[in-house]
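W.,

You were right to be curious about this one. When I first looked at the sequence I had no strong expectations either way, so I just let the prediction run and decided to look at it fresh. Below is the sequence, 95 residues in total, followed by the output.
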Amino acid sequence: MILRLITQNAEPQFRYTGGGLPKGGVMIVALVLLYFLPSMLAFAGGKRRKWKIVAVNVLAGWTIIGWIVSMIMNWAYEAPAGGDAENAEGITERP
């Protein structure tokens, strides 16, 4: 009798029945997109070193330092291809 009272009181009063937005799935998708953000930015920006950024992101991005390094590689200055140079107005000139 006492055991029955204890087990009845031990059961939670509220039980989750599911439904609504699957928050766990949304969170996983958001975190994967955030993890691969440096790689996506490299491809969207047309960077010449995009495969290096992807390699750093995939191999070391799980560490926060590796993710930051790949973001810095995205933002770092990249010299124009083929010896093109920009003048003071930002117009690319060929030598």
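Here's what jumped out at me. The chain has five helices and two strands. And, maybe more interesting for your project: The mean pLDDT is 79.

Coffee later to discuss?

I.
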